């Protein structure tokens, strides 16, 4: 099968950073399904894993943790899917990735592709959707069905992939969304997705939020990096909660959290698959739920840029775009 892989971890400008290779076609066993990959999207995790380091792979390594495609075959223990089903998923960071014609993935972390979306539109969603969904509904315990209607959420880094779907999930749950953006195009983007208010994260945010008439906010999601930690601590309400997806070496003073009895939660969407948690199937369930919301017209894809075909040249272009940190929405590469 065709695949885009690497043997050395290099700057994306290096033509050897990705290679077009031929690899054996995998065989499904156990609860695995074999997916014929139709489209993949690129996330910051891809660029971080691919980034320069002194490691050489003896056999080509395939990256990629966002895909849509068609079930080619199923393992003997599979009960959720049949050959020919259209699916979307983010996969497992400990296994071979989606930048290949065929990929093995555990059925419990796969969802039925939204019927109303193309493969490219669907591939833009899984990793960011799982991340935002788990951040809000599993970590912060927001009720997805509207029991917390009217509560406020500040989404820091709202114009990126996770923030773009996060805005929509929060609005669907009835929350008042305060989104951060710093450029005219990302400001317009987050408003288009439903943000009630927009503040500039390159300027002091405490003053901007309080100018909206809010002393504190109920929930905060940090969907970029932790340089805004002290701002988040200042703005979170007493007994409120902050969720973040970024590990950091920056200082994270906790005194302000303590006196507010506020809580901090980490979201890592690969945790369930990596540790084979008993509730792994919840990713299957949530992807199916979001697919239903999409097909009902309540949530839209966050796709922004499409490249074709899936090859080393276009993968380098996609990674370079994501590495700028200025992409709004998602970058997808489709079709072998």
UniProtKB/TrEMBL annotation:
Enoyl reductase (ER) domain spans which residues? Answer: 16-333
Oxidoreductase found in the keyword field:
yes
- Which Gene3D superfamilies does its entry note? Medium-chain alcohol dehydrogenases, catalytic domain, NAD(P)-binding Rossmann-like Domain
Gene Ontology cellular-component terms for this entry are: cytoplasm
Locations listed in the record: Cytoplasm
**Keyword Cytoplasm attributed:** yes
Q: InterPro entries, per this entry? A: ADH-like_C (IPR013149), ADH-like_N (IPR013154), ADH_Zn_typ-1 (IPR014182), ER (IPR020843), GroES-like_sf (IPR011032), NAD(P)-bd_dom_sf (IPR036291), Quin_OxRdtase/zeta-crystal_CS (IPR002364), Zinc-ADH_QOR/CCCR (IPR051603)
Record key words, sorted: Acetylation, Cytoplasm, Metal-binding, NADP, Oxidoreductase, RNA-binding, Zinc
The entry lists its GO molecular-function terms as: oxidoreductase activity; RNA binding; zinc ion binding
Which portions of this protein are annotated as coiled-coil regions?
A: none
Q: How is this protein organized at the quaternary level? A: Homotetramer.
Report the sequence similarity comment from the record: Belongs to the zinc-containing alcohol dehydrogenase family. Quinone oxidoreductase subfamily.
Its protein name is: Zinc-type alcohol dehydrogenase-like protein
- Which organism does this record belong to? Granulosicoccus antarcticus IMCC3135
